[in-house]
Amino acid sequence: MRFRIVLMVMVALTGSVGFAAQTVFDLPALFPQHVRYLSQFTAALRQGDWLTAETAARAASKLLPGDANWQYNVACVCARSGAVEEALKALRKALELGFSGAAQLEKDEDLAALRGLPAFRELVAQAAQLAANAPENPLVAQAQPTPIRMGGEASVTEANTQWAWDPSSGGYLTTLFALFSPSSSESSEYRGPYAEIVRPWLVPNALAGVLYVNRDADACVVRYENFPGLTPVVYSEEAQRAKAHIGAANGLFSNGRTPLPTVGNSTSVKGNSFFWRSIGRSVSSSPDAMATAFRLAVNNQLYVYDATADFLPGEAPGAGDNFHTYNPAFLLSVDADAADLKQAHPKAVQRGLTELVLAAVAVMPPETRQAMWAQGLFVPTVQRLFRQHVKGFPDYFSSGAHPVAFDPEQLEVEALLQAAHTLRPEQLPPAIRLAVRQDSMPIRYVDYFDLTTSEGVADTPVCVTRILRGRGRTRRLTVEVAPLREEPGMTFRWFVVTGQAEHVRIRPLVASGSLVTLEVDAPGDFMQSGVRRRRVDVACVAVRPDGVVSAPVFVSFRALGNERRVYDAQGRIQTMDYLMPEDRLYEDPVLSISKRWRDDYLYAPDGTCKGWNRTRPDGSVQRFDRLGRRVVEQTAEGAPKRVVPVRYAPRTVPRQTTDGRTVQVLELIQIDAGEPVDVNGERERL
Fold it and tell me: Mean pLDDT, to the nearest integer, of 99-117?
């Protein structure tokens, strides 16, 4: 079946009812729901379920009333189900919104039931006429670069911003600026940090052409007027109404041909109570946000996010390193001296870190800066500079050189700026990319119990993450790393930066180290650098024959905090306990939801798993076979005789927050999914 899923082009030409309230800045918030409707729609089409497909398409057309393609999809499924008048009505609406694919109408098999109708022939003729006089899309085609004087304010508006949907990397905004140089008389003296070091190395307007964007409503705005040539980005009223100016960066800045180098920052913390998260953790929880962060990074757009709330020492609920992945597509700042959030000064720390990034760029030789922009190496260059100058860790291949988050007080700032000033184009770091080559996912509701269908989160070319859900003690993953541009003689060094090295085995499969199998024992909770953690991070760095090293890429393995495991001497799971005191632990509700039981596993003499006993808080016990079916009758020898299949579903339950409020959270419950059946050899083999 052929159907149109070329969506989110947002042809909005007639101002249909409800669309006037939508602007291009509303699309990032609408995009996740659009993706859900698209998933429902395509799944229903594959199954020939026209009613469900129509329901999803109509819901999407209400979500995006200016999108002609969703109206076309409504027409297709109505025609398939025999609702001819409804199909014609939807086609008329699609044409009103700018659909002009006359050839598509003629050949689309979905519309076969309409082809003999005079009304359909009229619509085909209208589409052909519209194609001959196709108007421009006001949300995409008419976006034009706004002329901006370097050093002046660059305003993000509807007129210069467009939306794009790339199925491989999610949705993102692009704002177009045409920057032009100020006259030499407009140059001013550098008044940023470390001025006594920086000024002798500066050329006039060293940051000309670089944008600065704040994304926390100026709560932690950099003193951009102290950096000659730096162009601050501001957001128009319509962008602010849609909250497009706060939180994680969601768009590129470009001149229409090439991306514009950008430095941005935010101290925002999303949500509150049970569902709080820093921006860095929020980005790492969403495949679309991860893809956008990587897209920004490879286009010379570096953002600094505060991680203090997610990276605190101590034993209070929520303290510790709450991140589940190590993502070098952005920088994280942290007040390393804070004992708790009340004593923390995250704004001062983040402003200092962001201004240090700007100072490092300003002192680079002009030819190095230009080569860095041209090769898309801004983010890895800054990452490498910072990691090479962590106080007390001169060895780049040591764990201490690669903290999750940075505090300027922990950096050798003068040496860092000296290194930036003497950096030559040929010394820029090589770009490297990760890819998973062999993996084995556990089976949901047999090996683990949660809503998510995978241990993966969102792999990108610079970070790969696995949440350790399966009951095995050791997790294996084979990954390959390769340079973006082939360079003879390059080798790759792998080393542990977070976690206990004795529980990690790195097994190179080729001499260069480009292909390795990683074996990681489930870490549980442990302390490192005074912070409680439950994650293992393995870094990979490329080394050229001339000694130039890359910025690291990371593979992360994260244990869950809402469970406790016991293994025997052979490494077999004995107990998986989810009955944790919820007032003293925290786990990201996006990663895992609450379970109210403990599973104790049973083994045959040959070591194979026979199933498990499940104990509830009230002391009741249920037996399960190795396939996860509830045992209702056993043989005299204790083997399963009759079993009931089960399924799992979420329900909302009240939970007390640390500040005494009650919120509704998700809890996983078990439900019988059929009648008891006899166990036989054939069933046991399935």
Answer: 88
CB 231 within 8 A of CB 206: no
The neighbouring-strand residues paired with 233 are: 154, 213
Say how far apart CA 256 and CA 176 lie, in whole Å.
6
Intra-chain end-to-end CA distance of the chain, in Å: 33
What pairs with residue 303 in β-bridges? 264
Residues 6 or more apart in contact with residue 660 via CB below 8 angstroms: none
- Predicted structure pTM score: 0.88
Q: Evaluate whether 664 touches 593 at the Cβ level (below 8 Å).
A: no
Instruction: Decide: residue 540, CB within 10 A, 0-12 exposed, 13-18 middle, 19+ buried.
Output: buried
Contact between 554 and 537 under an 8 Å Cβ cutoff? The reply is yes
Mean pLDDT of the chain: 88
- The pLDDT tens digits of the residues spanning 163-208 come to 877 655 567 899 999 999 865 545 578 898 999 999 999 888 889 9
Strands 277-278 and 269-270: antiparallel
- For 403-427, give one letter per residue: b (16+ CB within 10 A) or e: bbbbbbebbbbeebbebbbebebeb
Strand partners, 520: 475, 504
H or E stretch at 59 = helix 50-63
- Classify the phi-psi angles of 140: left when phi > 0, otherwise alpha if psi is within -120 to 50, otherwise beta: alpha
**Residue 639 structure tokens:** 């083997």
Q: How many CB atoms lie within 10 A of CB 554?
A: 21
